[in-house]
Please model this.
Amino acid sequence: MTAESPESVRDAAAGLQQETVSREVVVVNAAGLHARPADLLAREARKWQSRIALVNESQRADGKSILELLTLAAEAGTRLVVEATGPDAREALDAIGSLFESRFNEHENHQDS
Amino acid sequence: MKFSDFVATGAIRSHVHAATKEGVVREMAQSLVDAGKIAPGDLEGIVKAIMKREDLGSTGIGRGVAVPHTKHPSVNKLVGTVAVSQQGIDFQSLDGEPVQLFFLLVSPPDRPGDHLRALENISRQLRDDSFCRLLKAAKEPVDIQHLLEEADSHGVVS
Model:
């Protein structure tokens, strides 16, 4: 692969639109990133044009895929990095950050994971 | 976590009879009773709890796969089983597709980490298309058991 592949030229031309922004989030709900939060997260991520990735140390998951999000097995207390690349990256990052902060609407005594 | 850590071999089913969401959940829970993993008296409570969880949002996570589950105080370790529906069942999946492959999990209320690690294992293995395809094509429960063992040891080679 060369540096002048059509993709890299197009990406360079897109300029600011391809900016990647990232932030740290913490899994605060006690049950961790299980099936329901992963569903909520993927639904939110799919609302945005930007590519969205969640990174847990060396592991990377597509934020728009529940299956991939579940492979992170992120327990309560886990710190993750959210990366967004695209024209609406900043807004997407804010929306996803809020979802984590809201504990995915889970209460600590929730019995139905 | 490996499949062998939570899948009750005697409860695996390659041809479920049920044609509805609650039917397949009940059939799988019954298979755990038959395998001695849950008490007969807990069957109704577990089926109800799983269906209540489904009401919050389908566990049909796409690719023809669902992971119906609940926490239940009657188990002291995570138990689960695998079933295949040859016809596919409407599970109100997130992608709208019928579900053929089911992983049912019952976990103790105080062990959210084990539940997460079981989901992690299932979702990681299911990213392999040939693993999904071979599970759906299983003729006998023992075929499913062998595929799970193979995935546990080194992943399924396509």
Summary: The mean pLDDT of chain A is 85.
